[in-house]
Amino acid sequence: MDPVGQDINLNSPNKGLGPAGGVDSLTEGGAMGVAAANTLPPGLTEEEAEELYSDLAKVEEEINTLRQVLLAKEKHSAELKRKLGLSPLNELKQNLTKGWQDVQTSNAYVRTTEKLGEWNEKVTGSELYLTASETLDGIAQSEAYKKTSETLSVAGQKTTAAFSTMGTVLSRKLGDMRNSPTFKSFEDKVGNIKYMVVGPRRNGEAVQSPTETNPVQDNAPF
């Protein structure tokens, strides 16, 4: 039977009836369980226990029927949403938008907004706030504040100029050092060391040492 077409009227004579013998089997099982267990609560007879088990079986069967109906309804709803092109993300956006609109129109939100507006007016209109604002304006317009601002500005400009001058001096010193006899003598020594490491030949030709003034003659006459 289609779960949607099932009789879910709780007052119907067919309520809770599933497959054939469903309730009877549960009732018989409940009675057998009571007889077998023989652990009834104090003051409860076997007849009362059987009746309670019978009611429990009917309620559980009704719950199962309602679950099947709900599942069928959910599937039908998902199919309708798919045909309408309503994706889960769009549905979430719509729910969030509607929820925020509900919050904005709620009495609590309106009262809170009004209360915050009242507090803002009270704070901005208070003597303490006005006095503090006037004090800050007075400080900004005072001669001491202006002098301090000018001093800091001049100090920043002087610092920038000092760093620029220092960079120029360092560049000049490095240039003078490179052109000094000491540095040239150091370069000559480095050249001699390179000549000793590389060897006297390069590409089949004789290599002249940086300190030699005359080329080496390999085929000198006897």
UniProtKB/TrEMBL annotation:
- Compositional bias annotation for Polar residues: 206-222
Could you list this entry's UniProt keywords, alphabetically sorted. Answer: Coiled coil
* Coiled-coil region list: 49-76
State any GO CC term.
cytoplasm
Region (Disordered) residue spans? 1-28, 201-222
One Pfam family in the UniProt entry:
TPD52
Concerning its family, UniProt says: Belongs to the TPD52 family.
- This protein is called Tumor protein D54
